[in-house]
Amino acid sequence: MAKIKTVYVCANCGNKAAKWVGQCSVCGEWNTFKEEIEQKNTGISYKSSKIKIAAKPKLIKDITYEKEQRINTLNAEFNRVLGGGLVPGSLVLIGGEPGIGKSTLALQIAVRLKKYTTLYVSGEESLQQIKLRAERIADEYNNCYILSETRIENILRISEELNPDIIVIDSVQTVHTERSDSSPGSVSQIRECTVEILKYAKENGKPVILIGHINKEGSLAGPKILEHIVDTVLQFEGDRNHIYRILRASKNRFGSTSELGIFEMQSNGLREVTNPSELLLSRNEESVSGVSVSATVEGARPFLIEIQALVSTAAYGNPQRSSTGFDIRRLNMLLAVLEKRAGFRLAQKDVFLNVAGGIKIDDPAGDLAVICSVLSSDINIALPEDTCFAGEVGLSGEIRPVTRIEQRISEAEKLGFKRIYISRYNTKNIDTAKYKIKIFGASKVEEVFRSLFK
Ligand code: TYD
Ligand code: MG
């Protein structure tokens, strides 16, 4: 094989260097150097006779297409995130931290699809290990082939002969191609392999599910271009110590990115959670202080989730602030609002906040529930059990309107809540009379406190 020369190219300005450098000497940017293979200039211009023209431009009105037939994966949550099933010829990337359940999810889909032939390629586990796992998650697995192979050329040749309906490749970091000398998992290997896989998927019209690891920073290991090449990027997240897992699309050429799939990791694989609210609310027999319920929307999906706070006098030194599932900076800001606008003395108190089920919430509408749970714990009075909250809190203690308010109200009503606190601005656009649940519109946090603890 010819010796391949690699160079390092600045992704920002295109400056080349023989060795990797931290800072570009031309544009001054840091950490922009990426390894690339030195290409020889072939000297072909677009006027050259060597270039054959295959494609012709077409008027957009003349382009016809058949309605795509999606493959139903028999997994309602997975279908939902994909936008209604796997599109033939599409390349789907599932990314996530180690041990979160990527292999389990992919294998589960592969073995449970009886109508289709599937090929599960693993570069990480042996055939016996995969069989053991398959035994845990399914009773029958007729049409699923397992292959333990890491050379991409072999994988694709075998696929072409076997012609399965769906291919799973676990993982993109373990496969390699002979065309690049770099080690598996390096930038150029990942890029070359993904391009090859994409070519296979498009030419044969078969969907390929690709599994990718996540690096320390939480983005997909390997180059960002991986995300550009594939059609769909799904992120599998959750806390490894909890049973809930969330699958969300961060890119989807064939559907919306606002859908969300929720799973529960059990001893026999991942169970689909179709009604998350019922699991995420613990509904204690007796009411405890510091617990509130937030009517959140993640993606396009409303669910109610319990937020717990514990406020206690700091025993020594600086008071601690700790939060799981909620942004700590946002918590600090909300505590400052409580202190300044509502006159609560929290500066000398420890504050711990926890979102139930190991779920992380990004929804700003969680603010009001967080504030109320902190307050409830501080004064040690439980909040009414049948009450929930949905509102963003601003720096002056004002309650700001949030999106999808009607969905939140309906979900709360469906779960039997009697009262919901929202922003007064939100009440203007909805017909409060059509709901059985009592809607309380407030413009300041003090109004909510007065109404709750009168
Ligand atoms: P895995 O799919 O191997 O994770 P990944 O491919 O993302 O690295 O899943 C790993 C965890 O899931 C492992 O710690 C064991 C657990 N697990 C279950 O709880 N139940 C099951 O049925 C299976 C197969 C795995
Ligand atoms: Mg795995």
Total count of domains: 3
Q: What proportion strand?
A: 25-35%
Distance between the termini: 81 Å
Strands in their spatial order, largest beta sheet = 6-5-7-8-4-9-10-11-12
Please work out how many helical segments DSSP would assign: 12
Shape: globular
Bound molecules: thymidine-5'-diphosphate, magnesium ion
CATH architecture of the largest domain: 3-Layer(aba) Sandwich
CATH homolog superfamily of the largest domain: P-loop containing nucleotide triphosphate hydrolases
Please mark out the parts with pLDDT under 50 across 5 or more consecutive residues, or reply none: none
* Biggest sheet record: 9 strands, mixed
Whole-angstrom Rg:
27 Å
Under the CATH scheme, which class of the largest domain?
Alpha Beta
Number of strands: 21
Q: What is the helix content?
A: 25-40%
Mean pLDDT across residues? 88
The CATH topology of the largest domain corresponds to Rossmann fold
Q: Which structural class do you get from the secondary structure elements?
A: alpha/beta
